[in-house]
Structure prediction request, 64 residues.
Amino acid sequence: MNSLLLTPDAETLEPWLDPQLTDRETIRQVVHHLPSGMLTHWPVSPRVNKPTHDDADLIEPIAP
Prediction:
């Protein structure tokens, strides 16, 4: 299962973090998808799933 990332930009970050933001229509107006060209992704180690692992190697690309 793939999930969609919520990536607020500088304009939408503050409203998104507002605990009073609960109205769905307002949320839809605040949150929007970023253009796909703004994001880069690559496979990483399954080590990222363990909170005890906390080092820079976690984000290094691995062979798919």
Residues 3 and 33 are 13 Å apart (CA to CA). The chain has one domain: 10-59.
